[in-house]
Design brief:
Structural class: mainly alpha
Order of helices and strands: HHEEHHHHHHHHHHHHEHEH
CATH topology: Glycosyltransferase
Distance between the termini: 63 Å
Radius of gyration: 23 Å
Strand content: under 5%
Shape: globular
Largest sheet: 2 strands, antiparallel
Number of strands: 4
Length: 412
């Protein structure tokens, strides 16, 4: 017996220590795997990070560009990094190889205003704070985007990348903040359809894939505030036209005529815009079947290319490309909306959503900044242009869709 204890006792003492170490390792691993943050926790972190920024992210570029995500092909050499508090982006590719000039837009016109990524992040923050019924947080967001701050920003009139700002004051109106936010937001929404084209579309159409979100989300918000179906009909007609012209046979979207690649965030704007529209568009609308078909075709393709870690690549169909978080958050959001609305079957999409959220958690820093966000990106025929794009943390292009995704997971 003495020999037994002599041989076994050290093991019996050591075993609890091994168990404790393994438990601690398991906790650390779960944090790395994204198990630490619930949607509410992650959302609050990201909102606090947004509120800590003293300035707005700003947009500045020349209109005559070969570019699909505005202000991004050549970032301004002014020492300002993508995602900084005050960001000015510019594209300087002038020439005849650009995509179609927006009808009614002057060549070389300057586009300036509050950046669409700031608007989208603020919109997501307000929506999430409203879902949490956090009146104090809503008041702080209303203060950040108060009219005395935002209405004094010089604004290039009636441009799609600037008009989308209207989604933010309209959301502030919807959650019960100052009534003046309604008037501010509706100026952007109604201005978008001033002097429409003969086919009834806004003169802001460019047939850039970003616009499926930029145009549709604003008109949808106007519908939510007013209840007038005209706004939904506008969005549906634009989205249907874009689907007919831009969607590829596999369900995904090329970055553009000069970018024949399935770029992640570009497709993310499409996926999110389609999901947002289908949240409100009645099945009786004549454009509903085409929009639903386009959305489902895209979701099926995305399901095929989701990585084992739950995320998607910078180029969706290139497994060698880096994992990119902004597009992944948009895809997770679009799928979750579809599952909740009964547009997609819970199996397998519910599991895909769960994996996407868990995968994104690996890239969320404790200060509320999301890592591995591709900087603004113009189109290119060179695949290396996409594969070697810089990635940053805290860029509002990534912060915004993470807030949307968290919101979609918290609401019924």
């Amino acid at each position: 017996m003495k020999n037994f204890w002599h041989g076994k006792f050290p093991f019996l003492i050591f075993s609890p220590l091994v168990f404790l170490c393994l438990t601690m390792m398991s906790c650390n691993t779960s944090k790395e795997e994204g198990a630490l943050y619930t949607p509410q926790e992650a959302g609050r972190l990201v909102i606090e990070e947004l509120l800590s920024r003293p300035e707005f992210m700003m947009l500045l570029y020349q209109e005559q560009v070969t570019n699909l995500e505005s202000g991004s092909d050549l970032e301004k050499e002014a020492g300002q990094e993508s995602g900084s508090d005050l960001e000015k982006e510019t594209s300087l590719e002038f020439g005849s190889d650009r995509m179609d000039q927006e009808p009614g837009m002057e060549e070389n016109s300057l586009v300036f205003g509050i950046h669409y990524a700031e608007a989208c992040a603020g919109f997501g923050a307000v929506r999430l704070a409203g879902a949490l019924k956090d009146s104090a947080l809503l008041a702080r967001l209303a203060q950040r985007y108060a009219l005395e701050r935002t209405d004094t920003v010089p604004n290039s009139a009636n441009h799609v990348d600037v008009n989308v700002y209207g989604i933010l004051p309209l959301e502030l109106c919807r959650v019960g903040m100052a009534a003046a936010f309604r008037e501010q937001g509706m100026r952007y929404a109604d201005g978008q359809w001033e002097n429409p084209l003969p086919d009834g579309l806004t003169r802001q159409v460019r047939y850039w894939i970003d616009d499926i979100w930029m145009i549709a989300s604003l008109q949808i918000q106007a519908f939510r505030v007013t209840g007038q179906p005209e706004y939904l009909q506008r969005a549906a007609k634009v989205v249907t036209a874009y689907l007919e012209k831009l969607q590829q046979p596999n369900g995904l979207f090329y970055h553009g005529t000069e970018g024949p690649f399935f770029w992640g965030r570009g497709n993310g704007w499409v996926a999110s815009g389609l999901a947002e529209l289908l949240t409100e568009l009645p099945a009786s609308d004549p454009d509903y079947p085409a929009i639903l078909a386009g959305y489902r075709a895209m979701m099926e393709a995305l399901l095929l290319y989701q990585g084992e870690d739950g995320l998607w690549g910078q180029l969706i169909d290139h497994p060698e490309s880096f994992r990119e978080t902004s597009g992944s958050a948009m895809f997770g959001y679009a799928m979750q909306v579809g599952v909740k609305r009964g547009l997609l079957p819970r199996r397998p999409y519910g599991k895909a959503v769960e994996r996407a959220w868990k995968g994104l958690g690996k890239y969320l820093n404790e200060d509320g900044t999301l890592r591995e966000v591709c900087v603004g990106t113009g189109q290119s025929t060179d695949i290396n242009h996409y594969l070697t794009r810089p990635r940053v943390a805290g860029d509002l292009h990534g912060q915004a869709p993470l807030l949307w995704f968290a919101y979609s997971l918290l609401t019924p």
